């Protein structure tokens, strides 16, 4: 019973080789996860940059589409007036 209590207090009486194993496992996991987390963050950053670029390009395309519609209507109006004027003369 007393041995169980001692081990439950953060493993103070655990053998030293268990500490070494846990330290090695923790270091390995940190290195492995740090690399994969860093790679995942870089990929998420790249995806975010692509989405922002796509939204900016879409906004520019929408503006040019509006300009094209305005020019289309203007040229339609000018050509309609021109046809009407030439019919009179």
The count of domains is 1
Number of strands: 0
**Strand content bin:** under 5%
Helical proportion, percent range: over 70%
Unreliable stretches covering 5 or more consecutive residues: 1-8
Alpha-beta classification = mainly alpha
The helix/strand series, from N terminus to C terminus, equals HH
Radius of gyration: 36 Å
Distance between the termini: 116 Å
What is the averaged pLDDT score? 78
Report the biggest beta sheet as strand number plus sense, adding barrel if it closes.
none
Query: What's the overall geometry?
Result: rod-shaped
Total helical elements:
2
Keywords:
single chain; 89 residues; mainly alpha
In short:
The protein is mainly alpha-helical.
């Amino acid at each position: 019973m007393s041995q169980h209590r001692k081990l439950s207090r953060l493993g103070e009486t655990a053998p030293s080789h268990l500490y070494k194993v846990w330290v090695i496992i923790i270091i390995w996991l940190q290195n492995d996860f740090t690399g994969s987390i860093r790679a995942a963050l870089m990929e998420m950053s790249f995806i975010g940059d692509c989405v922002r670029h796509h939204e900016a390009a879409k906004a520019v395309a929408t503006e040019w589409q509006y300009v094209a519609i305005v020019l289309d209507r203007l040229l339609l109006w000018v050509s309609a007036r021109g046809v009407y004027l030439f019919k009179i003369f």
